[in-house]
Structure formats: C-alpha cells, structure tokens
Write a structure and sequence with these properties.
four-stranded antiparallel beta sheet; 1 helix; alpha+beta; single chain
Length: 68
C-alpha cells in the first residue's frame, strides 16, 4: 500500500522519494532532471522537503450530491 501525504488540504499518493543530490550538477539544481523523472514516473505533482523530492499523484476530490 502506498503512503498518502496531505499538503495544503490536498491529498497525494507518494510514488517515489529521491534525494535532492541526485538532481544537482555540482551544486546547481537541474530542474529539467526533476521534470524528466516526474514525467517518467507519471507523477502530476512534486513536493520537496529539506533533503528529498517527493513525486506524487493527486488524489481527486469526489463530487457527490446528497440524496434525501
């Protein structure tokens, strides 16, 4: 079962967590590498903490109508 994380009142399924260092060329962050991994994983959102990029899939809110 995959981990779920809530950020800014939105829920995300975590697909993969990778260290930020994997996306650096020297000490410069290469955002193209981040985008390439995001697309390869099929992720639609990337979160970041102090040491990792967290590639996620957004859990869509369910629209419903109450039936009385």
């Amino acid at each position: 079962m995959r981990e779920i994380r809530v950020h800014n009142n939105k829920a995300f399924t975590i697909l993969r967590t990778l260290p930020i260092g994997k996306f650096e060329d020297g000490n410069v962050l290469n955002k193209d590498k981040v985008k390439a991994v995001r697309d390869w994983l099929g992720s639609d959102h990337v979160l970041r903490d102090a040491h990792h990029f967290i590639f996620c899939e957004t859990i869509q809110d369910v629209e419903y109508e109450e039936i009385n």
